[in-house]
Structures are given as structure tokens and as C-alpha cells.
Known about the structure:
Number of domains: 2
Shape: elongated
CATH superfamily of the largest domain: Fumarase/aspartase (Central domain)
Distance between the termini: 26 Å
Structural class: mainly alpha
CATH topology of the largest domain: Fumarase C, Chain A, domain 2
Order of helices and strands: EHEHHHHEHEEHHHHHHHEEHHHHHHH
Mean pLDDT: 93
Low-confidence stretches: none
Number of helices: 20
Strand content: under 5%
Strand order of the largest sheet: 3-4-5
CATH architecture of the largest domain: Up-down Bundle
CATH class of the largest domain: Mainly Alpha
Radius of gyration: 27 Å
Amino acid sequence: MTIIISGDGLSITDIRAVAKGAKVALTDDPVIIDRMHRSRAVIQDALDKGEQVYGVTTLFGGMADQYVSHEQLVEVQRIAMWHHKSTTGPRLPAEDVRAAMLLRANSLMKGASGIRLEIVERFVAFLNADAHPHVHQRGSIGASGDLVPLSYIAGAVLGLAPDFKVEMGGEDLDSHTALDRMGLKPLEPGPKEGLALNNGTGACTGIAANSMARALDLTALTIGIHALYAQAMLATDQSFAPFIHAMKPHPGQVWTAEQMAALLTGSKVIRSEAGGERAHRIGKLVQDRYSLRCMPQFMGPIVDGLATAAGQIEVEANCANDNPLIDPDTGEVLHTGNFLAQYTGVAMDSVRFLIGLMAKHVDAQISLLFTPEFSYGLSPSLVGNMEAGTNVGFKSLQIGGNQMMPLISFYGQSVVDRFPTHADQFNQNINSQAMNAANLARESLDVLEHYLSMALLVGVQAVELRAKLIADSYDAREVLSDGTAALYVAAREAASGAPAKDRPIHWNDLDAFIQPKVEGILSNVSSGGTIMEAIAPLRQSLTAFASRG
């Protein structure tokens, strides 16, 4: 797969593919290339006419009232990047750096930034050589864009100084050595080019796009887990009946109900109440508890909210967002605020909040499964061998989940509304905090991934115990729907080998630790292995739904 960079059309799926290592190429569309050249010519024409241009013939931000001589034009662009090499702390993962490089190149290809095509070609060279500048998580408030992280990328791409570092082939190199290995030499920035490289939202939005892709994947996995839980709990399919959701037709609610109905079709343990046959519930609740019955109503706004956030991130990923912007058709140089990453920040705050709701819902289901009074015959804490007399099953696993779920919820607090800033002599007197919002999203998703791996192990044990009660076999394929059998088998094998008729995945507590089972599932999910392949149709449907957001 090769992703074409044209200034438009990048999807979250495209960005994630490049983050994971896909190759890239610049478009050869002559209209786009010509626009790039004409944009650059506007800057040169302004200089030839002696016009004053922000960040070209002036200093930056609150010092834009200080003008520079013609002899200092290149030095100003070097300063634009050089002085932002000011932070330290944790580095961004390579996947996020790749996404940031892709988005900066894509923005520059819109032909509104006054930069040479040769410089954008360097981003392609770095991405295709798996050369990743050292970039730190801290330093950007998302106000004049991501000045600090993008300067670390720009300094390395240009070879501004050897002090800019690059990871290449598992080796940390100075930027000049990295360029030499790619057959390139250091390149001096021309007027406007330093500012064009670091003044934008590519870093926080790159992280956000990767996080958005993961959030959609894990939401699909959550729905798959809910389908396993519904079968373990002998739920009714009536909760997903089309008539119900046609009466409250929020798009996410309707989509969720449709997916659950499809996943559960053919299950031997889901109760069908067609024709009003409810006699087998006499003496018990006539309807399922809320976490089962209201599943589409609860997940619906989460799905809708994620779709909205995905749409915002895709728009941001395909915009021109530095300052000033150049209109090559009119020759105008326009002073703007497109570098403010507010959409990215709000989207990531929203994603973190929504996945916290999602974890809360899963936790409510687990509580039912672990409690015999509510689980319709399952053992307490899903003990495997009740006859041993000493087994306590997944009791500790649930406690561990209760540590993670509140943490995910805590991460869901907003950050974009925190504190004004007086940075840059009160020039950057509002900020988006988008970099913090995006980094927190990545961290929150790390916890959610772990939590759902635990929850999926719970689902495997629960459906195996249910299968024994219904079909006298612990192999849950005996009772599960076709739509969930593949997820069950993939999780079972990742955790502890193929399903067995004579034992559930966890039998006697002293037989084996629980930890390796969780780790097996977590590793499989993190790597996009068989578990994620098993829910591929659900993921594709959710991605398509989100693209309408």
C-alpha cells in the first residue's frame, strides 16, 4: 500500500496505515504542483516589492513589531525552529511521529504555505526510510500550532544542526548522519519556510488520528464482548428489535442495535420472544436488567460521539494550518489563526470521556456475571471447579478491573478548558491544549486496551460455563452464534489454547496464573492479531459509520 499525499483526502485509516509503516508518495497532479510553485512565488514577489510579511521580514508573535533586514531573512527562519529545541521528557512513539510527519506534509501540499516542493519531498524520504526524528510529548499548547514538536521534526528533516536526532534502523543518529544515509544533504530554509514547517497542528492531530483509529477498534471489540456477555447471561434478542429503535432513531443507537442483532443471530442461548413466549421467565424478571436491555441506548451516543470526533480529526488532517497563508490565485498573504488546534483538543477530550462511559458499561455487565443472584446459574466469580471447595475464580481479576475502569474514567476529564495562557507576551492568550488532550487519549486507550483484554477473558470463561450448563460441554462453540464464535476462539487460543470440552479456560485456581492469559489476549489485541481479525466486519462497519460523522 502506498498513501498519496495531495493536501486532501487522507482518512484516519490512511493515517494509521502510514503510522504503522505504509509507504507514501507525493501526488503528481500538475494542478497541485503548480499551486505549490505559485504559492512560493508570492513570497518572493512580496520580498522583491519590499513588502512586510509576518514571520518573514518580522520576528514572531508578540515580537512581530520588530523587523529584520534582508541579510537576516534566512537567520530568522533558522531561529523559528532553533529556539523551539527547548523541551525534554518522554519521547513520542514512532507511530505518532510518523503520523505527524504525514500530516505536516499533507498540509504543506495544499499550496497555501509558500514552501518549496523539495522540502516536502524530504518528509516522503524520511517516512519511506523509516527515519523518525526524536520528538517529545511535552512543549506544545496547540496555540501557534505544535511549534516545539514540529520544530524537532523540521530541524531533523532539514539537517538544521546535528543536535537534532533521528531514529533510523533501530539506531539513534544525528540528523546529518541520517541525511547522509538517505543520500541527502542539509538544506538551508528560505524565507517563510521555517515558519511553514513548525507552525501547524500536525503533531497533536497525528497523535489524535492514531488514537481515533484505536478508539474505533476498541469500540468494535467492546460490542463483540457485549455479545458474548449477552449469551452468557441468557439475554433476550427483543432488546435489539428494529421496531424499538425506529421509535428512537438516533443513528448510533440504530447502528448498535443492528450490530447486536446480527452478532446474536443463531445463538442457542439467546432468548427469542417472538410471539410473546415468555413463560420460562415466570418467577424471574420479565425483562433484562438495564445493562443488557438498554445496551443500544447506552452505546448509541458513544458511537455517535466517536463519529463526530472522527470527522473533526479528518478535517483537521486535511487543512492548511500555518500562518500566514498564501492565496496563490490572488497573491494575497493572509494572517490567520488556523494553527489553533481547538477541534483536535475538543475531539480528544470527547473521545476520552466516551471511552470512560464505555468501560463503565462493561464493568456493570461483569458485576452481573460474577454474582449468582443475577447470572442465572453461573458460579460466583466464575469459578471453574466448584467441587474443589477452595477456588475463588476470577475474584482478583475483577478487582484489577475495578482499578483500571475508574482510571479510564478519570482520564475522561476535559483538559482543553484548563487555564488561560499568557505565553508569548500575551500573544498566545488562548490555547487549545490539544497536545495534552491527544497524549492523554493515547494513555487512556492503553488502559482501555488492558481493561478490555481482561473483560474478554471474563467473556470466554462465562460462555464456557454457560455452554456446560446448556450443552454439557465447555466448548462454547456448541451454543454461540456464528457471529461471535470466531471472537471466542481467537480469544481462547490467545489466552490458553484451543477450546476443550472437558475444561473451561480457568478450572482449578492453582493450575495456572491468570496473568499470562490476560497477557496473551492483550498482546494479540495490541498487535492487531486474530482477535481483531475476528471482529473485522464489525470494525469495518463502525469505520464506515464514523466516516459519515
